[in-house]
Amino acid sequence: MLRGFYTAASGMLAQQRQQEALSNNLANSTTPGYKADQSSMRAFPELLMQKMGGKEIPTQSGGLTLPVNKDIGGMNTGVYVQEEIPDFAQGDIRETGILSDMALINGNIPDESGALFFTVQNENGEQRYTRNGNFTVDGQGFLTTHAGNYVLDQNGARIQTGGMDFNVTSDGILEAGGQATPLGLTYTNDVNQMVKEGGNLFRFDGGEGEAVQNARTTGDVTFSVQQNALERSNVDASKTMVDMMNSYRLFETNQKVLKAYDQSMDKAVNEIARVR
């Protein structure tokens, strides 16, 4: 009976984490370039149940008992959320009319798990990656995100625009003050190595010898950059609401099962096992 407690409780915990991920997706449904998290659930390792017993074999000396194990069947002990994986599908493109807004549009991506990113610098001076092209220009004329992270060029340097009077070509070249600066556009062939850090930024967490690459010099990768536009979040708000309702119902079902086990345990302890 205690196994039933654990199974129902694990189901409730898994649905709680699922609900948190879906709520976060819905809250970011209007965040430019946001990539929805998808929860991956997995059952705990299956156990093989066996019945232990013995078999008596008659002998001249009186008999011999041999241990015998009989397979009863498998038993699962619950479910858990193994990981949350971002969905890197391209979001819709929306025109904004703001010069500092840029949308990175996928062209040919040869790898199914490949993705393109803008390169930015966080407050610690480390490179991070984002699909959010909702940029602005700070008081010193540098191109930044609205959170204050510097947008980097292809050489990893900050981009000086001198103001809001600049142009961005479709191949990602920023033209300002007679200077042409290629935006830092990077490519990875394995998005599973990209870890969310908050603020719509990703950190590359690949193994030794792996790295994100210059998107302009990587094989058959093609892309375009659209100025005065933003890539919208790829969250489907309607589907997310439906998934949240399903998750809530599953949580409620496991809750009822847990309550039923609790009532059975109460009866077993306080009525059946009562000493008279």
Walkthrough of the structure:
Helix content is 22%, strand content 36%. It has 2 helices and 20 strands. The relative contact order is 0.20. Helix 1 runs antiparallel to helix 2. It folds into 2 domains: 2-48 and 71-84 and 236-272, no CATH class; 93-231, no CATH class. It has 276 residues and is α+β, with helices and mostly antiparallel strands.
Averaged pLDDT, please?
A: 87
List the total number of helices. 2
Specify Rg, calculated over alpha carbons.
29 Å
Weakly predicted, low-confidence segments:
none
List the secondary-structure elements in sequence, H or E: HEEEEEEEEEEEEEEEEEEEEH
Q: N- to C-terminal separation?
A: 24 Å
Q: Helical amount among residues, as a percent range?
A: 10-25%
Bulk shape: elongated
Number of strands: 20
Domain tally? 2
Let me know the largest β-sheet. 5 strands, antiparallel
Strand content: 35-45%
Helix/strand structural class? alpha+beta
Main location: other
Protein name: Flagellar hook-basal body protein
Domain Flagellar basal body rod protein N-terminal: 5-35
Domain Flagellar hook protein FlgE/F/G-like D1: 114-175
